[in-house]
Amino acid sequence: MVSSSKKLLTQKEPEKKLTVFLKQKAGRNRSGRITVRHRGGGVKRLYRLVDFGQEKLGVPAKVLALEYDPYRTAFLALIEYPDKEKKYILAPQDLKPGDEIIFDEKTSLKIGNRMKLKNIPVGLLVHNIEILPGQGGKLTRSAGSAAKVLAQEGKYTALEMPSGEIRKILSECFASLGVVSNPEHRYQTIGKAGRIRRKGWRPTVRGAAMNPVDHPHGGGEGRTPIGLKFPKTPWGKPARGVKTRKRRQTDKFIIKRRK
Description:
Layout: E1 19-20, E2 47-48, E3 61-67, E4 76-80, E5 86-90, E6 100-101, E7 114-116, E8 125-127, E9 129-130, E10 137-139, E11 147-153, E12 156-160, E13 166-170, E14 174-177, H1 193-198, E15 254-256
């Protein structure tokens, strides 16, 4: 079993005003039907209210602590403004308690600062990127991820995403400088069944081990091949390596597809 190191995290309870309890849905939608399989159980946990946007422009904030978040792979930073208001933000790598950060249209090129893409020099790494101005960060938020600024083209900024995709995003959108914290997450090994159960994942059964009535891969005597031209989901749709992205309005902003 391999876990991420939490030596740099502050030993404290989460902020009560910035946490809420989310009722477990176990993969079910509003009508009670299971829409996401293999979910349920798990330990109780509190959801941290993270600020992905930039409410206070030009106001410096002090980093009070680095904390673990059970709902995401990255660590969180607790910041405090001069008026004593506290917020959770995604913690970039190398940010430490006691540091000062600022969100503004144009700031100094310091880890954790947040500014508009048009003011970020080519070659720098950014995370928590907006898709539409004022919407809040939507892209590059997982542990150890970052996008690279490749070019400034008129009202658009060209970014190389972690997947290798190169796409254009409006230069008026905000992004945070640096790489998202906890890059060791990619080397994590679950190690045992009990650990994944505590995370809220239930056992997954292979389709080939089922009966024909339960799955297209089921049936046969012994170790039988699936007997189909291509792998299918339990509902008969193509699976494994099939493109699922439908035609979207944002396709015109993709310069190069992911590798």
